[in-house]
Amino acid sequence: MKACLEKTNADFSLNRKTYFIFMGSIQNEMDIMLVGAISDTHDNLPLIEKAVATLNEHKVDLVLHAGDYVAGFVISKFKALNCKLIGVFGNNDGDHELLKKRFSETTNCTVHERFATVTVNGYRIALLHGEEIELLNVLAESGYFDAIVHGHSHIKSVQLRGKTLVVNPGEVCGYLTGKPTAAILDTTAHEAKLIEL
Asked: What's the CA gap between 41 and 66, in Å, rounded?
């Protein structure tokens, strides 16, 4: 998997669908309609397991993680997803090299540095942690992306800013709000819903 992702025109099969990687983007030759969004898992293993089970129950086609896994031992929990996970690093992620190593030990998970563009059937999604508020605002105001998935604040929200859907799935860990949450983005309907875990 790792070698495959390092190529710009690589392809790989997952869940009977073929994806093509182009410079950090995913182009899917079949329809992906439901994208799970999570963030700020912060080593809370029981709630990570619950998030994985919930996203599998909702039959999402792809999961985006907006960062703050924290330690490498959590990554193996995402192997239970029935789809691919694409993630970025957050401001609390410790040893990036260890996290990359743990991601490389999975068959369904990849991690990018601080930003990733995910394109699904022409639907452009920006994925970042979101601690740089000015950058987040510029991305939203640019109108270039159909959706932006971010975390960092641990506060769940779904906003339409111009034509861009800005989604913060809240926190999986539940440490700050006491309410662990995730989001499901419907790329066909251009809408997102927040779900409690």
From this structure: 9
DSSP 51-101: HHHHHHHTT-SEEEE-S---SGGGGGGGGG-SSEEEEE--TT---HHHHHH
Beta bridge partners of 148: 126, 166
In degrees, to the nearest 5, what angle opens at C-alpha 55 toward C-alphas 58 and 52?
150
Q: Which domains does the chain have, with CATH numbers?
A: 29-196 (3.60.21.10)
Q: Report the predicted TM-score, pTM, of the whole model to 2 decimal places.
A: 0.86
**Number of Cβ within a 10 Å radius of residue 97:** 9
Number of H helices, E strands in the chain: 4, 14
Question: Tokens representing 118?
Answer: 């995910």
Closest of 56, 55, 25, 91 to residue 182, by C-alpha: 55
Per-residue pLDDT tens digits for 68-101? 999 999 999 999 999 999 999 999 998 999 999 9
Rounded CA-CA distance 120/111 in Å is 17
For the stretch 23-72, pLDDT in tens is: 344 544 446 789 999 999 999 999 999 999 999 999 999 999 999 999 99
